């Protein structure tokens, strides 16, 4: 490394203590004696930001002046988690912070807990984006994360007295937020509506209204790299924030209408879109952040140039489209190039297609975003013209290649007919250089099924980059006990930046002393989580039970229903004596999930899980044998406590439906064994950790497709397995709804007549494998040997490796010198 990019210079405890005091005095106006934990948190965070500032400015300078192409990661979500401890780790200041805070009379954990988790994401998509920008900085690749600063997140989840999900605003930004730097001087104008006219032979967009996109910058420090990248999130402001004339007419609400309408764009992540107004707001949101980001990138890389040579733009930055949410950026860049910089279509198209790449995160056709051409035309009329131009040229290309009418209709970006639709995944595939899936199986199915026509037409565009997770947050910060043991076992902590070094643990799985140390770490993590759950959720958790966890977004294909039906079956078996008390393996089941506000079946499943938990946890017949807990508002903080304590992880989606998953990687790296199907990254995890160290059940993708083709009758599986029948009957007869048979009637009807994701078909093999799981768990030495092998063989699933694959296969760039 050069001197400019060297890791942070060590800071003494005394110096850092003085820096915190300085921030308390001169920034917050609080004396040390009166400072609360929250005051210390803000002061420490501001002090840490000062230590990052020089590296941040140097990284920006080197990015613009150097020859290394930058990465612009466009994502609707960045599920960052708390920032302070992560920044301290990457600076090498964890112990310094702890000692300084104690010197000021505060407990480090209390100060860390004062930080409010940013409400910038929902699930795996956003957490992947956060892992990736962490790895980009740690490897030293110049990058911007571009997204939205949501005022209220997606929502804060609560449960009412009936166990139903209730959505509350997430007021995360209402507290002191020392990490985001608002820069009004670098705001952008984003236009909407209006019409397109022909002026002097040129198409001219005349918008009806505009909003101001104000950047809020978050530093993204790399781990011991000396580099600090930028997460630039946009917040919407009105150009006419206050109508004084309306106010003077006593129309006080009307006076702030422009402000409210503008700020609505960045209030909520994924506004509910079952109404036309909701759909419009979602599209406004998507265009808002990509338009601001593209304009910003041009400003950054061509400073002070009124008419830069944008044919070099793809050499300055490449944009990665994280799913379809930012795909409107393709026609936006075309518009900017043609309308603002006077490039002809072919030149603009060449620049655009070399700038964008697309990551597809789904195999579900219904999850591939589609917009009404009418809505796009009304909100973004010039863009709809450009999209039609792209579609027409693509159709001509297909005709020239010999495609028949049926294939052309299947591949149109803009569908034919009276109500044309714009298929955003198709636009991304045609308008970018590469398309990647996020696990080997997913990428293959993407080529063979979801985007088959396109993979045949553009075979060189398609590739795979298996997802990964950052070991800094999800091992070193989340699991310090295991991290210390790994460092002891390997004799180095270099594994945090080279996770494949974990392979050195494999021989230690045969070392009884190391296995016992590993078992003690897991036990200590379980006790710690039991204390955390008691303090924050009021749960009484028994650490002498197996900790069995299923945490992920609530969706029918992820099959939380399969897990809860198996729990009900287990409960029934204990109650009716099918399983003797002596044979019962004590187990505590943890669920964590949010359901989209408009997703009725998912929300009903949450209600069922909560009420199964209520019944089981209050039944003395199963005390000490079975417990179910569903902590509300699952987030990064909860994950960092629960994942290290988990012994059995559930990855039970229907084969062929999960793109990858990253939760499965986090659990394996933290020493949990997995029960799962051959779906998503489960396939690669099982290959690497060993089939004998993974509990496999369920149909394969081919078997699922064959059953669909044959005709699936879920009721036949209900009748064939008494365990399943009893579980569903208990849901139906009101056991978990205070005797009300109607509460879960829609769920029961769906299971027995539709069950599209074949929960019932896989139930028997899932229930059967529990015996194998419990037999192994009885032998704690062998269980922990296998858990160690999961850790040792999961180094491939680092987000650092994922980024290296992107650099080689898609972005064709590298670290700054």
UniProtKB/TrEMBL annotation:
What does the record give as the reaction this protein catalyses?
A: [(1->4)-alpha-D-glucosyl](n) + phosphate = [(1->4)-alpha-D-glucosyl](n-1) + alpha-D-glucose 1-phosphate
PROSITE patterns, sorted: PHOSPHORYLASE (PS00102)
What Gene Ontology cellular component terms go with this record?
Answer: cytoplasm
Q: Which residues carry this modification: N6-(pyridoxal phosphate)lysine?
A: 666
Keyword flag Glycosyltransferase: yes
Q: Which SUPFAM superfamilies match?
A: UDP-Glycosyltransferase/glycogen phosphorylase (SSF53756)
A GO BP entry: glycogen catabolic process
Swiss-Prot/TrEMBL keywords: Carbohydrate metabolism, Glycosyltransferase, Pyridoxal phosphate, Transferase
The protein's required cofactors: pyridoxal 5'-phosphate
The GO terms describing molecular function are: glycogen phosphorylase activity; pyridoxal phosphate binding
EC code: 2.4.1.1
Question: According to its UniProt entry, what is the function of this protein?
Answer: Allosteric enzyme that catalyzes the rate-limiting step in glycogen catabolism, the phosphorolytic cleavage of glycogen to produce glucose-1-phosphate, and plays a central role in maintaining cellular and organismal glucose homeostasis. Phosphorylase is an important allosteric enzyme in carbohydrate metabolism. Enzymes from different sources differ in their regulatory mechanisms and in their natural substrates. However, all known phosphorylases share catalytic and structural properties.
Q: Which family does this protein fall into?
A: Belongs to the glycogen phosphorylase family.
Q: What is this protein called?
A: Alpha-1,4 glucan phosphorylase
Organism (species): Galliscardovia ingluviei
């Amino acid at each position: 490394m050069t001197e400019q990019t060297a890791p942070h210079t060590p800071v003494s405890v005394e110096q850092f203590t003085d820096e915190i005091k300085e921030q308390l005095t001169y920034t917050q106006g609080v004396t040390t004696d009166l400072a609360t934990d929250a005051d210390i948190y803000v002061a420490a965070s501001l002090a840490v930001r000062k230590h990052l500032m020089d590296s941040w400015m140097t990284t920006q300078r080197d990015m613009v002046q150097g020859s290394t192409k930058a990465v612009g990661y466009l994502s609707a979500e960045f599920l960052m988690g708390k920032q302070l401890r992560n920044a301290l780790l990457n600076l090498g200041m964890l112990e310094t912070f702890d000692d300084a805070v104690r010197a000021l009379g505060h407990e480090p954990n209390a100060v860390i807990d004062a930080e409010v988790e940013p409400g910038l994401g929902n699930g795996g998509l956003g957490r992947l984006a956060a892992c990736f920008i962490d790895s980009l900085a740690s490897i030293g690749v110049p990058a911007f994360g571009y997204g939205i600063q949501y005022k209220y997140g997606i929502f804060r989840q609560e449960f009412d007295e009936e166990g139903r999900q209730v959505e509350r605003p997430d007021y995360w930004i209402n507290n002191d937020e020392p990490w985001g730097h608002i820069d009004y001087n670098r705001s952008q104008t984003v236009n909407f509506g209006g019409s397109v006219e022909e002026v002097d032979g040129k198409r001219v967009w005349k918008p009806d209204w505009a909003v101001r996109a104000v950047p809020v910058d978050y530093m993204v420090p790399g781990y011991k790299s000396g580099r600090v990248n930028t997460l630039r999130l946009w917040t919407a402001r009105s150009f006419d924030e206050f109508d004084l004339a309306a106010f003077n007419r006593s129309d006080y609400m009307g006076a702030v209408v422009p402000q409210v309408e503008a700020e609505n764009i960045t209030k909520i992540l994924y506004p509910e879109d079952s109404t036309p107004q909701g759909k419009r707001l979602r599209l406004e949101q998507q265009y808002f952040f990509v338009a601001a980001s593209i304009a910003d990138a041009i400003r950054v890389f061509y400073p002070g140039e009124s008419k830069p040579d944008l044919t070099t733009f793809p050499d300055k930055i490449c944009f990665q489209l994280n799913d379809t949410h930012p795909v409107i950026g393709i026609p936006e860049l075309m518009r900017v190039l043609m309308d603002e910089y006077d490039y002809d279509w072919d030149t603009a198209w060449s620049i655009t297609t070399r700038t964008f790449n697309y990551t597809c995160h789904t195999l579900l056709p219904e999850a591939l975003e589609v917009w009404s051409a009418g809505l796009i035309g009304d909100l973004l009329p010039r863009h709809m013209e450009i999209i039609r131009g792209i579609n027409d040229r693509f159709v001509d290309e297909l005709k020239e290649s010999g495609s028949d009418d049926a294939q052309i209709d299947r591949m149109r970006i803009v569908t034919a007919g009276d109500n044309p639709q714009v298929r955003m995944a198709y636009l991304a595939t045609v308008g970018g250089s590469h398309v990647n899936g996020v696990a080997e199986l997913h990428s293959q199915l993407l080529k063979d099924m979801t985007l088959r026509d396109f993979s045949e037409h553009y075979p060189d565009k398609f590739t795979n980059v298996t997802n990964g997770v950052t070991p800094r947050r999800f091992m070193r910060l989340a699991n310090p006990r295991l991290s210390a043991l790994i460092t002891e076992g390997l004799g180095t902590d270099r594994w945090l930046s080279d996770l494949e070094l974990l392979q050195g643990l494999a021989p230690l799985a045969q070392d009884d002393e190391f296995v016992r140390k590993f078992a003690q770490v897991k036990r200590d993590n379980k006790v710690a989580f039991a204390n955390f759950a008691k303090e924050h959720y009021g749960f009484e958790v028994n650490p002498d039970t197996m900790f069995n966890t299923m945490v992920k977004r609530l969706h029918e294909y992820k099959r939380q229903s399969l897990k809860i039906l198996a729990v009900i079956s287990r409960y029934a078996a204990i109650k009716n004596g099918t399983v003797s008390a002596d044979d019962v393996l004590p187990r505590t089941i943890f669920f964590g999930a949010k359901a989209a506000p408009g997703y009725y079946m998912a929300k009903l499943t949450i209600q069922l899980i909560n009420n199964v938990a209520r019944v089981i946890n209050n039944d003395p017949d199963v005390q000490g044998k079975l417990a179910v807990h569903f902590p509300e508002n699952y987030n990064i903080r909860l994950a960092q406590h629960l994942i290290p304590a988990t012994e059995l992880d559930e990855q039970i989606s229907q084969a062929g439906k999960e793109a990858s998953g990253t939760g499965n990687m986090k659990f394996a790296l933290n020493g949990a064994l997995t029960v799962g199907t051959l779906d998503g990254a489960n396939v690669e995890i099982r290959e690497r950790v060993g089939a004998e160290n993974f509990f496999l059940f369920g149909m394969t993708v081919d078997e699922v497709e064959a059953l669909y083709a044959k005709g699936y009758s879920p009721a036949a599986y209900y009748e064939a397995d008494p365990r399943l029948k009893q579980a569903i009957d208990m849901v139906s007869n009101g056991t978990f709804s205070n005797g009300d048979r109607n509460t879960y009637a829609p769920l029961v009807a769906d299971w027995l007549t539709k069950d599209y994701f074949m929960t019932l078909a896989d139930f028997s093999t899932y229930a059967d494998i529990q015996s194998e799981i419990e037999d192994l768990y009885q032998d704690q030495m062998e269980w922990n040997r296998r858990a160690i092998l999961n850790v040792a063989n999961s180094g491939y699933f680092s987000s650092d490796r994922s980024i290296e694959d992107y650099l080689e296969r898609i972005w064709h760039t590298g670290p700054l010198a």
